[in-house]
Design a protein that fits this description.
- The protein has 198 residues and is α+β, with helices and mostly antiparallel strands.
- Strands 1-2-3-6-7-8-9-10 form an 8-stranded antiparallel beta barrel. Strands 4-5 form a two-stranded antiparallel sheet.
- β1 and β2 form a beta hairpin.
- The relative contact order is 0.18.
- This is Outer membrane protein beta-barrel domain-containing protein.
- Keywords: Signal.
């Protein structure tokens, strides 16, 4: 009886040891899943914006762009972005009870459209389950007669949703301005990010 109990205890301890060893090896073999901030991503993005502030000639703005995200740590990245953007010019604004016409100042008939190429770079910080804040700095290159080349300052806030295939859906808001009167646009943006890593 004593020998049988000893054998059963030895068998049980051997089984526990083998199970613990197998679980430890399984955990070791599990591959680290990179966070969104640790991934090299190429984004294709679009959005819609509206001109805000006094004397702002922009009605609706939209565009299509590409952005590259380079990770600098687990939740800090550097982003570079360019693309092609366009905005409509409002017909008129009210000033002192009277209407002035933007078309007169822009030497164009209403409705008018203007085009620019944004080129900017800046940091992005991921926090609290893929919420992010960022800042894009650069230049907007005017490519139509009524668009002037200007400084680009754009703080941003959004959320990145990681997908099972390693890609990312990213959406958020930005506020872009050149700090000149009537130059501000508030945007809603949507992007799809392709994971360049493994």
């Amino acid at each position: 009886m004593k020998n049988g109990l000893t054998s059963a205890l030895l068998a049980l301890s051997l089984l526990v040891s083998i199970t613990a060893n197998t679980l430890a090896q399984s955990r070791t073999r599990q591959r680290h899943v990179p966070t969104v901030g640790e991934r090299s991503l190429v984004f294709l993005e679009t959005g819609i914006g509206v001109g805000i502030g006094k004397y702002n000639a922009t009605g609706i703005a939209t565009g299509l762009g590409g952005r590259f995200q380079m990770p600098l740590g687990s939740n800090f990245t550097l982003n570079a972005k360019t693309g092609f953007s366009m905005g409509t010019i409002k017909k008129a604004y009210r000033y002192g009870g009277y209407y002035d016409y933007y078309g007169y100042y822009y030497a164009s008939e209403y409705p008018a459209t203007y085009f620019w190429i944004p080129v900017n770079v800046g940091p992005r910080f991921y926090f609290a389950k893929n919420l992010h804040v960022g800042l894009n700095l650069g230049v907007d290159i005017g490519v139509s007669e009524v668009a002037a080349t200007s400084f680009h300052f754009e703080p941003a806030f959004g959320y990145a949703l990681p997908l099972a295939n390693g890609n990312v859906i990213d959406f958020g808001t930005t506020f872009e301005t050149s700090f000149e009167q009537g130059s501000s646009i508030f945007n809603f943006r949507f992007a799809y990010g392709l994971n360049l890593g493994k």
